[in-house]
Design goal:
581 residues; alpha/beta; 8-stranded mixed beta sheet; 20 helices; globular
Amino acid sequence: MTNSKRPLRSAQWFGTADKNGFMYRSWMKNQGIPEHEFQGKPIIGICNTWSELTPCNAHFRKLAEHVKKGVLEAGGYPVEFPVFSNGESNLRPTAMFTRNLASMDVEEAIRGNPIDAVVLLVGCDKTTPALLMGAASCDIPTIVVSGGPMLNGKHKGKDIGSGTVVWQLSEEVKAGRISLHDFMAAEAGMSRSAGTCNTMGTASTMACIAESLGTTLPHNAAIPAVDSRRYVLAHLSGNRIVEMVNEDLHLSKVLTREAFENAIRTNAAIGGSTNAVVHLKAIAGRIGVDLALDDWTRIGRGTPTIVDLQPSGRFLMEEFYYAGGLPAVLRRLGDADRLPHKDALTVNGKTLWENVCEAPLYNEEVIRPLDNPLRDDGGMCILRGNLAPRGAVLKPSAATPELMRHRGRAVVFNDFDHYKARINDPELDVDASSILVMRNCGPRGYHGMAEVGNMGLPAKLLEQGVTDMVRISDARMSGTAYGTVVLHVAPEAAAGGPLAAVRDGDWIELDCDSGRLHLDVSDAEIQARLDESDPMAQSNRIASDGGYRQLYIEHVLQADEGCDFDFLVGNRGADVPRHSH
């Protein structure tokens, strides 16, 4: 509990006896802060995404209090500040639309304030990448504290998974297998406590990614939100961030290429969300690591999925934590020499392997042996071809194996509204072998790339017992969803990509083994079709309305580049700005 001997960034606000120092200290003192708190103590920012409109993060006020206790105990001084909270469940058109906005809020809040280090309070899907992106562009000592998953949902005496059960039951209603009353009855039991989705959706995936990157203390990913150990971890993180200031342990020393490669391998082992592909690319771009789509093939493919969680498997995040959590997964990978970089540094000052080499594993049904996996190959399938020149993504652990190699005729929807108007038309020319294609739902086309890629199947096929079909779009998919779904097609249709040229009845070939996504139409015909239309007209018209939408559409990068803004890529550091007076 000693004060830092290193020059503190905050001292350039609070450490002088001139007019500026007087002003900075005096206004802070109106909160009842005594003089000695300004005498060389590290100032620790607690970046809080609490919001009652973000139910996943609604318990963060209490979480922040425990971080503060840890900071004070270690000899620092905590200052809590809010940033834009982009909650997945309420925010329209999609929380992804404001991920970059939130990252800008974080970056400028850190850079412009007297902060020596920062604790990022994250949980809901986009808050984890947004806050890591903003902090990475500043590169000060940083530690992540996730809010944790909610308790298992309950319905008719059985566990149900948040998000996943919505997709399942809504299909059963359409198929006539359950009543609307049964569907609505599940609503009350799905979300039983504070916290994020209890499936291996994007929130839990990104919590695991943050831990495998080394940006959190061990076990951060899986402790349930309402478990007292979540608050212990927050307290210890407050302790540790003060030590990181004293050690000058900046984020760039943790977020190395080796860390990102560990995260890619981890994502395959846990059956993580396809959204991780976009978010990891964006975080890497901010810290200066050149991460490519092909890295997901090189590092991830061939890795078995050993975590048996919904939507790919059976269990939920409570069971995952009780089984040993992510440390048990990382140990299992490391013992088999499947962890790419055991010596990668983490925020507690130890290597990743030092943190997990003795991690216990309590349930081999939930965290399976490598020779009895949920899926033999859980690595993201990166697809390329004339339909996706810059790539597309498919999650094998959530797909039907028999459909991973498939040829079928396209049924095309020009956008999400067209899909909703047409999908249940009894006259729709579609059968089980058809491939559903939806376009204009990418970053420009749906300004935010909404999670509409897992298109529900036609009611008439559901009634026949069809449970999965190949679906292709330039959209994203919720991490809680499942199916043989090709996503993130780049370039998107609204950026002039070949998806805009597909017509009803065209033959499409999908081959995940070879990474091929091919439209059986000549290049000349594809170009002629594109020349007949103006695929960018709609997004350009929306952009002409001004506001943040215009900024977004004009500057968002494509999915293979992480959907960051072109002007935000890179590490701009945290040099102290000029005085305000």
